[in-house]
């Protein structure tokens, strides 16, 4: 599965990535395309409920051939992107053939450049009509997303092997329904739990739909997963409260969703999004303290990205090792840094690749590494300030400029060795 073989093990032991390793970068529709006027994020932006509006974003909807040419120049052999549900179905039941055709062309462009498409079906945004019916708080609305999944899979199955049904389901449920930072900007533990369970049930059904369609078409089986956001939970002080908090956070935030889907046999690989450390310092025995409180005293300081997130490459190694017991291939579907210091960006990439290779040397079946993001983009409630891109985007002119860190990563891709 995912090209894992004896030679993959051998290469890892020789301190090199295997020749069939996937290398790429990611985008998501609302963050780069521009003009996604039919989804709940655009609606919130129009109501001035967010820091900035996405507007034309990176104009990737029309500039994607140029952007993929850059990715090809950088040696990428895969690319992760998302399909914007609200473009496909802007009004309930009103499917747009030209929108589906657009994504066919996106995939054709990738394949013509030798890049494997990794397709995400839900990356945080929803059609306005779906949200107005209650969105992910209503279990009866699963049928609408599943109808979209069926239509897209039937249209694209012949050209797509790798699917991600839902990006970071726990990040979506917590930011939209617990923290109130994202549309619909609610703050309810009960609604958060409902949405999380709804997303899990929906993935299970979507997984089965995708596989069924491939069987009906007589196609080789697809590889389907989620992209799970995993954090490195570390304790500030070795107190009993902190140790309990670490156990609970690992169980709930990192592994609950994955293990639920594994029990239902609906993961073909494990998609991992990893960015940072969570330094636990719990001051009370209450549930909120155990699940949320972090060190506020700057103990054990680390380098940080421009959003203040700790840079902790060793956490990726530890998480990869912890996933080994599930005996599935792992695909790093996001890893990246927002910073104005490109030397720091390269250090971040290099150090995380070193930790990945170390985990592979210990038998973890890592299939590939996808950097977040190919382009600087609209970073949700943070606006356009954070710059994650391998490629700098000058938003007023939409001019692209390849960063030196991207060229250094290209050398690693070319040689298979960390320089």
Order of helices and strands: HEHHHEHHEHHEHHEHEHHEHEEEH
Kindly state the percentage of residues in helix: 40-55%
Largest sheet: 8 strands, parallel, barrel
The CATH class is identified as Alpha Beta
Strand proportion, as a percent range, falls in 15-25%
Q: Distance between termini?
A: 28 Å
Strands of the largest sheet, in order across it? Answer: 1-2-3-4-5-6-7-8
Radius of gyration: 20 Å
Q: What's the CATH topology name?
A: TIM Barrel
Describe the structure.
With 419 residues, the protein is an alpha/beta fold. It has a single domain, classed as TIM Barrel (Alpha-Beta Barrel), CATH 3.20.20. It is 44% helix and 16% strand. It is built from 15 helices and ten strands. An eight-stranded parallel β-barrel has the order 1-2-3-4-5-6-7-8, surrounded by six helices. The longest helix is centred in the middle third of the chain and has 28 residues. The two termini are 28 Å apart.
Write a compact overview of the structure shown:
The protein has 419 residues and is α/β, with parallel strands linked by helices.
Keywords:
single chain, 419 residues, alpha/beta, TIM Barrel, 8-stranded parallel beta barrel, two-stranded antiparallel ribbon, 10 strands, 44% helix, disordered N terminus
